[in-house]
Amino acid sequence: MLFMLIILRTIKYYTSFKSDALRMKIFVAVAVVVDTASLAGAYADVYLYTVTHWGDLKYLSNQYWPFALYLTTTGVTALFSQSFLVHRYYSLTKNWFVAVFLALCVIVSFGGSLATVIILTRFNAYSQRFMIKTPVIVWLTTTAVTDVLITAVLIWQLYNMKTSFKTTEHVIQRLMRISMQTGSTTSVIAICILITYLVNNTSNVGTGLSFILGRIYILTLLFNLTLRTRIPKRTSTSTVRDSYGSRCGPTMTMTDGVHVQRNSVVHVDMSTIWP
Fold first, then answer.
1. Environment class of residue 61 by beta-carbon count within 10 Å: exposed (0-12), middle (13-18) or buried (19+)?
2. Strand 240-241 relative to strand 266-268, pairing
3. Please, which residues have CB within 8 angstroms of residue 7's CB and are 6 or more apart in sequence?
4. Model confidence over 247-270: pLDDT tens digits?
5. How many Cβ atoms are within 10 Å of 18's Cβ, its own excluded?
6. Residues 76, 70: Cα–Cα separation, whole Å
7. Which residues of 119-156 are buried (b: 16+ CB within 10 A; e: fewer)?
8. Where does residue 1 rank: exposed (0-12), middle (13-18), buried (19+ CB within 10 A)?
């Protein structure tokens, strides 16, 4: 079901935003392909355990390549989604200090996921799962913290945007709610996976939850991109390009969907909006 939503959102993106820069289209394509590989690894993992090797206690006592595949690709999809949102924040605020700090959190989280995979590859028996306790804690904790921080700084930035237009004010309030919803979902799932692992590191409850984490990250990315269709476009004659590579209006400068006119009037353009 989640993957079907990814397919629908991907189709919507490519059909609705043909003017986006080629680099953004390639970025989305790579992210979706990586998530598809992650889903394939999850399916292979379940199929091998429950069908091909059902009842084979020797096989069932170890973890194999599908497990490593979907963990690696889940870490990569989280990297893509979080990096995208950090870039959105920097494009809007030009705050190097906060952006660099968030980027470091993203790197640490990704490093934790890679460390988890490397250790699992070397010690693949279920009885040795305790070996990954430290990298799992680092990975999932920093993932949750990073998601919360990104959500917090985006909401804070939107909260401090002042405008005399009621329509724009309503849009900003809605973006604040959407930012909270998309950021909290991934962090809650990551925390649940961590708790289930710490309670019983040989249980597959956390494994089942981790199957959907990558899907949620890709949906967050695609939802941020396709949300732009929900607000009517502002028309003008400008040839300036936004950070997605799309053209925007003439008498204004634009940062990630927020247009600032030369007379200091601010409004939001849905053709380039992001939560």
1. exposed
2. unpaired
3. none
4. 444 444 444 444 444 344 444 444
5. 9
6. 10
7. bbeeebeeebbebbeebbebbbbbbbbbbbbbbebbbe
8. exposed
